[in-house]
Design goal:
Helix content: 55-70%
Oligomer: single chain
Distance between the termini: 53 Å
Mean pLDDT: 89
Number of domains: 2
Number of strands: 11
Strand order of the largest sheet: 2-1-5-8-9
Strand content: 5-15%
Number of helices: 31
Structural class: mainly alpha
Low-confidence stretches: 13-25, 670-675
C-alpha cells in the first residue's frame, strides 16, 4: 500500500513498458496496483454492495509490497554486496512520514475545532496508535468490526494496513540478510519463506471468526496478515538475484503471458463474488489462496521481456494511479468519513464520484509538492538546509503530539450524558427540542424494553410521557421456551398476568403511541401448541407469533390508540461464551449448535415476520436492527459507546444514545398531523 516501485512525477510517468530500463519495468508494477486500489476506494465510498470482495484487494497490495521491497533489497545486495539497513529505514521514513504527518495534523486540527465529541473521544488514541504504527493492534483490542461501517468508524481505521506494512519494514532488511546468510540455495530460501506463510495461514485457521473478538483478530493482526506479504517475499527470492547476483532462468514468455491474463481476470471475479463475511477465507486457507492467485500478475509485471499484458498495465492512467497509491489510500478514508458527516444525503453514485475526485486531487497535490521532492532530495530540499529540516521534522512530530492531546480534551461520556447531551445514534441528527405538549407512549415487551424505556434521559426528552408495561423475562409467545434439548422453561405467572391485563392497562394509560418491543427470546425454540418443537423456520411458529401480534395490537386499537409501532429486534454477539441466561446453562449447548445461536444473535427471520406483518396491518416499524447497522454485522460499540451491558440488555449509555433516534421517531406521526 505504501511502496511505489519507481518514484517519478506522475505528470511525467513513462508508458514504455517494454523498455529494458528500470523505470519501464517498474511502470507495469505501478500500473498493476491501480485496479485493486480503485476497487478498494470505490467500495469504501459506497459501491461495496457491487464489490463485496473488495477487501481481498488488500492482500494483493500486501503481496506487491513484500515483493517490491524484497526485490529492491536483493538487487541492492547484488550490486553493492550488502543491504544498507540504515539507508533502507531512511528511505522508508522519507516515503511514509511526510504524508502521514500532514494527515494527522489535519485530523487533529479538525478534531479540535469541528469534530463531534464522540469522534474526538476515540480520535486521540487513534492518532497515537497510527503515529506508532500499531493501529491494527488497537483495532484488535477494541474488537473493531471492519465489515460494520455503520455508527462512527474510526477516522483512521484504514491505517491498520500501514501498521502491518511498517511492522514488516522493521524486519525486512534483517529477514533478507538472515535468509541470504543461512540458506545458500534459492529453493531453500523460497521454501523457508513459503513455510512461514503457511504457518500464518495455519494460525488463521485456529481462530473462531464467528465471534467479534475472533474476526477482529483474524482481520487486523500482523501474524495473520503477514501471509500475504510473505508470499510476495518468497516470490522476490524466486525471481530476484541470488548470492552471486544471478537471476533465475525465466519461464517461457507465452506461459507467463497466458497465466497473467488468467490470473488478472480470476482476481477480478474475487472482487465481485466473494462475500464480505466468508469464514472459509480465514479458516480454510482462503487468504493465502486468493493471494497466490495474483502471483502470475506480479511475475509478468516484473518480467523484462515485451508482452501485451505489461503494455496494458503500463497504460499511463494506471501508472498515474499506481504512483499515487500511498496518497490515495492515505486520504480516501478520512475524506469518506467527512463526506458521511457533512453530506450523508448525497446519492450513492454522486458520493462515489465526488469522493474519488477529491481523493485524487489531494493525493496529486501531496505527491507533487510534498512527497516527491522529499523522496528525491529529503526534507532539506523544501527548507534549504539540513538543520532546518531536522527542526521541521521534530517540530512536526511534537506538534502532532500536542494537538492530539488537545483533541482528547472533551467531556467524558458520563459527563456528557449527565448534561443531557447524549451522542446521536445517527450522525447529523439535530438537537432535540421538547414539545410543549407531551407525547404519551406506552411500551409492552420484555426486560430489554423495560430497561430501555426506563433509562430515557428525562431532562433531554422531557416531553416523552412513558407508561412502561414491559415485564422482565416475558415473551409475547405464551409458550414454553426450549433453551436446550433438556432445558425447558414455562412462562411465569407474572408474564401471563401482564398479558391478560394488557387491554385494561392500555385503556388506563390513555396513550398517543403504543410500542411493542419483543426480545431475542422469540428466536429461541418454543414448544408448540401440540407439544412439538418449533424453531423460526417452522411456518406453524410464524403463524402463532403473528396471532400474538394480532392479539396485542388489537388490544391497543380497542384502547383507542391509533399510532402503533413494532420495533425490530437488534442483533447480539454470536459468541456462546457471552450467551448467559439467568438460571439456564446454555453455553455448552450453543457452542455445539452454532446455527441455533446465530438465529438468536442475528434475528433476520423474526424481523422479516415483523416487517411483513406490520405492512399488512398498518403498523409502523421502528427498525432498531437497521439503525444499529446489524445488516453489516454485530459491533460491541457504536459511535464510541458500548452497546450492551450483558448479552440482552442495552448499556445505559447506549440507551441514552438510542433515544436520540427513538424520541423523534415516536413524534413523527404527531408532527405530520400537526403540519
Amino acid at each position: 500500500m505504501t511502496e511505489a516501485s519507481t518514484y517519478q512525477n506522475p505528470t511525467q510517468a513513462k508508458t514504455k513498458a517494454d523498455k529494458p530500463a528500470r523505470s519501464g519495468r517498474m511502470d507495469a508494477l505501478d500500473g498493476g496496483k491501480a485496479i485493486p486500489l480503485m476497487v478498494v476506494l470505490v467500495a469504501h465510498f459506497g459501491w461495496h454492495p457491487y464489490l463485496p470482495g473488495a477487501w481481498i484487494a488488500i492482500n494483493h497490495f500486501f503481496l506487491f509490497s513484500g515483493f517490491v521491497i524484497t526485490l529492491l533489497l536483493l538487487r541492492e545486495r547484488a550490486k553493492t554486496g550488502r543491504v544498507g539497513v540504515f539507508e533502507f529505514y531512511r528511505r522508508r521514513a522519507r516515503r511514509l512520514l511526510p504524508g502521514l504527518f500532514v494527515l494527522l495534523t489535519t485530523l487533529s486540527l479538525w478534531g479540535i475545532f469541528l469534530a463531534p465529541d464522540h469522534v474526538r473521544r476515540a480520535l486521540q488514541g487513534d492518532i497515537f496508535a497510527t503515529l506508532g504504527y500499531v493501529m491494527n493492534w488497537r483495532l484488535v483490542m477494541t474488537a473493531d468490526q471492519y465489515f460494520n461501517e455503520f455508527g462512527s468508524p474510526s477516522m483512521l481505521r484504514h491505517a491498520w494496513t500501514l501498521s502491518v506494512e511498517e511492522q514488516f519494514y522493521a524486519v525486512a532488511p534483517w529477514l533478507i540478510i538472515g535468509a541470504m546468510a543461512f540458506w545458500r540455495r534459492r529453493l531453500s530460501r523460497v521454501s523457508a519463506i513459503a513455510g512461514l506463510a503457511l504457518f500464518s495461514a495455519w494460525l488463521s485457521s485456529r481462530i473462531d471468526v464467528s465471534t467479534v473478538d475472533g474476526l477482529a483478530r483474524a482481520y487486523y493482526s500482523t501474524d495473520i496478515r503477514m501471509q500475504a506479504i510473505l508470499v510476495g517475499v518468497a516470490l522476490a527470492f524466486a525471481l530476484g538475484p541470488d548470492s552471486h547476483g544471478r537471476a533465475p532462468r525465466p519461464l517461457p514468455l507465452g506461459l507467463v503471458h497466458a497465466l497473467a491474463w488468467a490470473s488478472w481476470f480470476g482476481v477480478m471475479t474475487f472482487y465481485f463474488l466473494i462475500p464480505h463475511y466468508s469464514p472459509w477465507m480465514w479458516n480454510s486457507g482462503g487468504i493465502l489462496l486468493t493471494t497466490v492467485a495474483i502471483v502470475p500478475v506480479a511475475i509478468a509485471c516484473a518480467d523484462p521481456r515485451s508482452m501485451a499484458f505489461k503494455r496494458v498495465m503500463a497504460w499511463r492512467p494506471f501508472v498515474y494511479i499506481g504512483v499515487l497509491t500511498y496518497g490515495l489510500y492515505l486520504w480516501h478514508w478520512p475524506i469518506e468519513r467527512w463526506m458521511s458527516l457533512y453530506g450523508p444525503e448525497l446519492p450513492v453514485n454522486l458520493f462515489v464520484i465526488i469522493g474519488i475526485v477529491l481523493t485524487v486531487a489531494v493525493a496529486h497535490i501531496s505527491f507533487k509538492y510534498l512527497e516527491f521532492p522529499i523522496i528525491r532530495g529529503g526534507v532539506s530540499s523544501l527548507v534549504g538546509t539540513v538543520g532546518r529540516a531536522r527542526i521541521l521534522v521534530w517540530g512536526s512530530l511534537c506538534l502532532i503530539i500536542v494537538l492530539a492531546f488537545f483533541v482528547g480534551r472533551v467531556p467524558s461520556l458520563s459527563q456528557q450524558l449527565e448534561s443531557g447531551a447524549a451522542p446521536p445514534l445517527i450522525p447529523g441528527t439535530p438537537a432535540y427540542v421538547p414539545n410543549e405538549t407531551p407525547t404519551r407512549v406506552t411500551v409492552f415487551g420484555d426486560s430489554t424494553a423495560l430497561y430501555l424505556f426506563d433509562q430515557i434521559p428525562s431532562k433531554t426528552f422531557s416531553d416523552m410521557d412513558i407508561t412502561n408495561l414491559a415485564v422482565a423475562g416475558c415473551d409475547i409467545a405464551r409458550l414454553d421456551v426450549q433453551w436446550t434439548d433438556i432445558e425447558r422453561r414455562s412462562p411465569e405467572d407474572v408474564c401471563l398476568d401482564a398479558r391478560a391485563s394488557l387491554p385494561e392497562d392500555l385503556k388506563t394509560a390513555k396513550s398517543d403511541v403504543f410500542v411493542l418491543m419483543s426480545g431475542s427470546v422469540l428466536s429461541v425454540r418454543h414448544v408448540g401448541t401440540g407439544g412439538e418443537i418449533w424453531d423460526v423456520r417452522n411456518p406453524a411458529y410464524r403463524s402463532y407469533v403473528e396471532s400474538q401480534l394480532d392479539d396485542v395490537f388489537n388490544a391497543a386499537r380497542q384502547a383507542g390508540i391509533e399510532d402503533l409501532r413494532l420495533m425490530t429486534i437488534p442483533c447480539r454477539e454470536n459468541d456462546p461464551a457471552k450467551f448467559v441466561t439467568h438460571g439456564v446453562d446454555t453455553q455448552d449447548y450453543y457452542r455445539e449448535h452454532p446455527s441455533k445461536l446465530k438465529d438468536i444473535a442475528d434475528p433476520t427471520i423474526v424481523n422479516t415476520w415483523f416487517r411483513e406483518w406490520a405492512e399488512k396491518n398498518n403498523v409502523q416499524i421502528l427498525d432498531l436492527y437497521e439503525v444499529l447497522g446489524c445488516e453489516r454485522g454485530f459491533s460491541r460499540t457504536f459511535n464510541g459507546v458500548t452497546l450492551f451491558s450483558d448479552y440482552f440488555h442495552f448499556h445505559p449509555d447506549a440507551a441514552a444514545m438510542i433515544w436520540t433516534w427513538l424520541a423523534p421517531e415516536l413524534r413523527t406521526r404527531e408532527s405530520i398531523e400537526g403540519d
